[in-house]
């Protein structure tokens, strides 16, 4: 145990059950990798985490909206300039739709630069009578269905760090180096507008923005905020050895921050109150999230608040609900009502993806865009009926023209899924479907 961990009790989680952790074959090798990670530079800075916390506090107050999204599971091979740019392009287009059509400031958070580990419902996978360990993300083992590939390898933790660093550098370059300039609203769409209903709708909105910008320039106004965006990284902090190794004490405050990302969250499968993840998250000072499924009781939610945000700091804790379109109107109201009555300062975000997955006849895991849209609509209905703020959406998308979810203005049918089904884990919205969703959310927010 390091002096840092000892003084801040960052190792307290090790005495508790830790769900969804890999079965590392060589603990000595893991310890060696963790020690090396502990000496590497931070990927983000504590001050940036605090800046995001302040923006999420505005969401709590009903003054802003969160757009959080990106890959279901990043891959090391996907850390390329083209892939990162395409994901950012989609996120920027969605944010423009929400900001302009929804008339609300948007906090932009990517599932990017760290989303390399995935929880699994089963520890093993069987194909043609052969049973192997489940793929748990590139941070843990390989996607190829071979015994060698599926062995958990601690060296992958180091590769995840370096891949995250590359991705973050690219994201910073794109968002600060002119690519995110509002005058680029047409350029983001050039490869997309002709064949896509969502692209054509976006192009019309881009023309309106151009006219507004021209008017402002004629008036002598050209704010700095028009030329770059604040962009934050996030991931599910699933592999606790990795996230603890990247925890550093902020020189300004003497408090520990998980500097692998600006925001980290606890998944639905790892939110046990007496579990290791909740304990570790209680020690770090980042803005954090917790995924809540339909089985979550108000008492559980309130206990999570007591453990993770005992000082009731706005922006510290976000609840990301993942109920499913058929359940959100039934189970969310009581949760929101009782948490609100407690006085807890919570941002509420809707994850309309994870509760709406099904298997197509072809065997592909997929989601219907209509179900995604219906869950978002239910999320807004519940908050409007209670007078609370629908604070954002959390989605899995890609900037590529994949065929993983069915539906959308450019219709993808179940028979089309095999055309470009490329995800390493769960099905993602493609760019057109993501824009369809953004326009619908903007309508709901305005309404």
UniProtKB/TrEMBL annotation:
One of its GO terms (molecular function) is 3-deoxy-7-phosphoheptulonate synthase activity. GO terms for biological process: amino acid biosynthetic process; aromatic amino acid family biosynthetic process. Its EC number is 2.5.1.54. Coiled coil: none annotated. Pfam families: DAHP_synth_2. Keywords: Amino-acid biosynthesis, Aromatic amino acid biosynthesis, Cadmium, Cobalt, Manganese, Transferase. Gene3D superfamilies: Aldolase class I (3.20.20.70). Mn(2+) binds at residues 72, 354, 396, 426. It is an enzyme of class 2 (transferase). Its cofactor is Mn(2+); Co(2+); Cd(2+). It catalyses: D-erythrose 4-phosphate + phosphoenolpyruvate + H2O = 7-phospho-2-dehydro-3-deoxy-D-arabino-heptonate + phosphate. Pathway: Metabolic intermediate biosynthesis; chorismate biosynthesis; chorismate from D-erythrose 4-phosphate and phosphoenolpyruvate: step 1/7. The keyword Manganese applies. Transmembrane segments: none annotated. Phosphoenolpyruvate binds at residues 111, 268-269, 291, 322. Binds 1 divalent cation per subunit. The enzyme is active with manganese, cobalt or cadmium ions. PANTHER family: PHOSPHO-2-DEHYDRO-3-DEOXYHEPTONATE ALDOLASE, PHOSPHO-2-DEHYDRO-3-DEOXYHEPTONATE ALDOLASE 1, 2. Belongs to the class-II DAHP synthase family. This is Phospho-2-dehydro-3-deoxyheptonate aldolase. It comes from Nonomuraea glycinis. The lineage of its organism: Bacteria, Bacillati, Actinomycetota, Actinomycetes, Streptosporangiales.
């Amino acid at each position: 145990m390091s002096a840092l961990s000892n003084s801040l009790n960052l190792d307290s989680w090790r005495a508790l059950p830790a769900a969804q952790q890999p079965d590392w074959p060589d603990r000595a090798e893991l310890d060696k990798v963790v020690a090396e990670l502990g000496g590497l530079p931070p990927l983000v800075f504590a001050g940036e985490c605090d800046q995001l916390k302040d923006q999420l506090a505005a969401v709590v107050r009903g003054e802003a909206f969160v757009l959080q999204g990106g890959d279901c599971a990043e891959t090391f091979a996907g850390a390329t300039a083209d892939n990162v740019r395409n994901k950012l392009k989609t996120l920027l287009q969605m944010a423009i739709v929400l900001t302009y059509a929804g008339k609300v400031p948007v906090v932009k958070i990517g599932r990017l630069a760290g989303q390399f580990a995935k929880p699994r419902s089963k520890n093993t996978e069987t194909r043609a009578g052969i049973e192997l360990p489940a793929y748990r993300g590139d941070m843990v083992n390989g996607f190829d269905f071979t015994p060698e590939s599926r062995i958990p390898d601690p060296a992958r933790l180091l590769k995840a760090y370096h891949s995250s660093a590359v991705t973050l550098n690219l994201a910073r370059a794109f968002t600060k180096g002119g690519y995110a300039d509002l005058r680029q609203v047409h350029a983001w769409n050039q490869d997309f507008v002709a064949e896509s209903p969502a692209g054509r709708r976006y192009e019309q909105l881009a023309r309106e923005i151009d006219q507004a910008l021209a008017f402002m320039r004629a008036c002598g106004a050209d704010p700095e905020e028009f030329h770059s965006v604040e962009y934050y990284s996030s991931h599910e902090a699933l592999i606790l050895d990795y996230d603890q190794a990247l925890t550093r004490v902020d020189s300004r405050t003497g408090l520990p921050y998980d500097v692998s990302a600006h925001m980290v969250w606890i998944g639905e499968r790892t939110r046990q109150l007496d579990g290791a993840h909740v304990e570790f998250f209680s020690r770090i000072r980042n803005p954090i999230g917790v995924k809540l499924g339909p089985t979550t009781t108000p008492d559980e939610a309130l206990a999570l608040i007591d453990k993770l945000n005992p000082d009731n700091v706005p922006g510290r804790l976000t609840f990301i609900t993942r109920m499913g379109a058929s359940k959100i109107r039934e189970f969310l109201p009581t949760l929101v009502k009782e948490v609100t009555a407690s006085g807890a300062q919570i941002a509420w975000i809707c994850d309309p993806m994870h509760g709406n997955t099904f298997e197509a006849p072809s065997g592909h895991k997929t989601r219907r865009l209509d179900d995604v849209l219906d869950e978002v609509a239910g999320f807004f209905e519940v908050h409007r009926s209670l007078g609370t703020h629908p604070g954002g959406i959390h989605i899995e998308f890609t900037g590529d023209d994949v065929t993983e979810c069915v539906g959308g203005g450019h219709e993808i049918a179940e028979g089309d899924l095999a055309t470009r089904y490329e995800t390493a884990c769960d099905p993602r919205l493609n760019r057109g479907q993501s824009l369809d969703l953004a326009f619908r959310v903007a309508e709901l927010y305005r309404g």
